[in-house]
């Protein structure tokens, strides 16, 4: 469980840290979009069969590109002292032996036990491995998603899993212009439409067991854009942002808001609900990494 109380100074530091990390990822994606190759025949076949477009277990990622992005992250980690510098140096020395591709694949398929085994085998901080596995892996899945944009029917997919990579959503929004429900994949950044009254995790449509709650007291409900939607059948939750309650000039960045709303994850778990993607933003000891 992440730390339940994060001071304002520490919260600001995390926010600035992640802004730089996400900015670095964006710059890398802009530079390397052309380096991502997809098999159009396989994509068409999977689309025709109603499957998500890529198989995370079979994607190929160039180790040279992984190493380049790895190096881009290092100065930011040192600037914010997010991890002990000795731990960072240790990983720099051992990353070739571990294989960044192997690390990334463990995270993309959710094999956290293998991640722990890698940490134990090489005497490395598992939180540090998780940070790199996630941010390297997410960056490349986002590149694939950009490449495949328009290859699926966003209006009619209507499944609880991502149409590009098959992951469950990490967050959702109620769209500003019409209140339509849009799910967001925390792995590849894809957004897709979904039924307003249905659990994306188990397909439950019983409105009596689907509900949501806010934080901050009743007086804040009219203005608060953040809430937690829960399903009492499968006991899963998803964080929701109502764009209609946000300033009109506010551009929603799911990646940053997922970090900014860690308090909602803590609250939902206190109430007995689970998330399929909470581990992506929190680790047992450090909270957000």
What features would you describe in this structure?
The protein is α+β, with helices and mostly antiparallel strands and 289 residues long. The N terminus and C terminus are likely disordered. A hairpin with a 6-residue loop joins strand 1 and strand 2. The protein has two domains: 140 residues, no CATH class; 110 residues, Alpha-Beta Complex (FdhE-like fold). 43% of the residues lie in helices and 9% in strands. The chain is built from nine helices and six strands, in the order H-H-H-H-H-H-H-E-E-E-E-E-E-H-H.
Listing every helix as H and every strand as E from the N terminus to the C terminus, the arrangement reads: HHHHHHHEEEEEEHH
How many strands, what sense, and barrel or not for the largest sheet?
A: 6 strands, mixed
> What's the number of helices?
9
List unreliable stretches of 5+ residues. Answer: 1-5, 284-289
How many β-strands, per DSSP? 6
Distance between the termini: 13 Å
Strand order of the largest sheet: 3-2-1-6-5-4
Pairing-aware structural class of the strands and helices?
alpha+beta
Share of helix, binned: 40-55%
Please state the CA-atom Rg, rounded to the nearest Å.
Answer: 19 Å
Q: Tell me the fraction of residues in β-strands, as a range.
A: 5-15%
Number of domains: 2
Mean pLDDT: 90
Shape: globular
């Amino acid at each position: 469980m992440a730390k339940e109380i994060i001071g304002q100074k520490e919260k600001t530091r995390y926010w600035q840290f992640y802004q730089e990390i996400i900015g670095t990822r964006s710059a890398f994606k802009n530079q390397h979009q052309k380096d991502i190759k997809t098999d159009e025949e396989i994509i068409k076949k999977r689309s025709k069969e109603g499957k998500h477009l890529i198989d995370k277990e079979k994607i190929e990622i160039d180790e040279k590109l992984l190493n380049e992005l790895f190096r881009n992250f290092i100065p930011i980690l040192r600037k914010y002292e997010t991890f002990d510098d000795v731990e960072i140096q240790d990983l720099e020395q051992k990353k070739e032996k571990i294989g960044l591709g192997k690390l990334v694949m463990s995270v993309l398929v959710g094999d956290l036990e293998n991640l722990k085994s890698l940490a134990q085998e090489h005497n490395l901080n598992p939180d540090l491995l998780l940070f790199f596995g996630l941010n390297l892996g997410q960056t490349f899945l986002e590149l694939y998603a950009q490449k495949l944009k328009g290859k699926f029917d966003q209006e009619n997919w209507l499944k609880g899993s991502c149409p590009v990579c098959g992951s469950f959503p990490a967050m959702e929004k109620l769209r500003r212009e019409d209140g339509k429900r849009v799910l967001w994949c925390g792995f590849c950044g894809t957004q897709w439409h979904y039924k307003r009254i249905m659990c994306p995790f188990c397909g439950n449509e019983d409105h009596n067991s689907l509900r949501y709650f806010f934080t901050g007291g009743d007086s804040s409900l009219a203005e608060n854009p953040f809430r937690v939607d829960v399903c009492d059948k499968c006991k899963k939750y998803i964080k929701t942002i109502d764009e209609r309650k946000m300033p009109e000039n506010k551009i929603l960045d799911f990646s940053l808001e997922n970090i900014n709303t860690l308090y909602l994850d803590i609250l939902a778990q206190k109430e007995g609900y689970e998330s399929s993607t909470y581990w992506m933003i929190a680790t047992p000891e450090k909270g957000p990494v």
